[in-house]
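Protocol step 4 of 5: obtain the predicted structure for the target chain.
Materials: sequence only (see below). No template structures provided, no constraints applied. The aim of this step is simply to have a reference model before the mutagenesis design in step 5. Sequence pasted as it appears in the construct record:
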Amino acid sequence: MENIVVLGAGLVGKAIILDLYKSYNILVIDIDKNKLSKLDKIPNIETLVTDLAVDTNIRKVIKNADLVIGAVPGFMGFNMLKNVIEAGKNIVDISFFPEDPFKLDILAKDNNVTAVVDCGVCPGMGNIILGRYIGKFDINSYKCLVGGLPQNPVKPWGYKAVFSPIDVIEEYTRPARFKEHGQIVTKPALSDAEFVNLDPVGTLEEWNSDGLRSLLDTMPHIPNLLEKTLRYPGTIEYLNVLRELGYFSDVEIDVKGNKVRPIDLTAELLFPKWKLEKGEKEFTIMQVIIEGKQNNKQIKYVYDLYDEYNKASDTFSMARTTGYTCTAAAELVLKGSFNEKGVNPPEYLGKSENNFRFMLQYLAERGVIYRKRTEDQ
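Step 4 output (structure tokens):
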């Protein structure tokens, strides 16, 4: 069997591992031995406690990999990806780091590496769906609404996190970039808040977030591109208060002679409040809307996703929808169905009809179903 090295054993990393271990030899790397202990005694899985912040450690653990999967926190992602590429290893990554991945494109091509980045649910599957329609008709608008939420929200948060708390907080602080009438617009995160009604949940709150990422570079011909985060109504009020008071700042302050980044303290305080408990029910909801002109008619393609915590596998929905998109892409790379050298955002996967259908089927077999509808206008 081929060897896959998974860097990171968080909730999403664990979903990835448990989806792949029956078909591949898996080596899992994390600095937290408690996370790794949960994988003990599972066939085809080896674990290793290692600090992935050290470059030499990364190169050592991926030495025998046929494929690497990156599932580290965002602040570690870019450097991790660079080290994997320099080692000449193919990678599918869901670290969602803030840096521009295309800065590593030439390096990846020089090292004959296929690197698929941002391959989660959004960014990820939303990009893949858009990629399916590139060149098929004249697209003038892409919009993606997405959120992962607990089924039984507790005030004031109304939220629980699958990802690293600092990565979540970054969504509330990083300026949101989108495209409007052919121009790239930048607004503060949490801006343009409004209500939207989505089945089967009902009324949710949506606001601008910086989730378009590579689409701003790869889709210059589409004049309108927008991504928004979904939360329960009222969430934005407390987030704005925390942000304006400086609790999300990454600038060190002096507290009785100690240098502290407020965001680090906030993450430590919020993590117990945002932590998903074992068996806690949550869901992922996403809607992708692609509009344009086809055969002289205005047409709209809508893809809806609603997915819940899976009791049988004890897997949270956001881990499922993110992780299984990643493992589907991993299968394509390992089988040679996708072998473009360089840094590849997920929309490149969707350009192939066969690969697009494979990914939808792969996800559907695991209960993650995207429902498509078409509207003539």
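Step 4 remarks: The longest strand covers residues 138-150. The chain has two domains: 3-120+318-367, 125-317.
Proceed to step 5.
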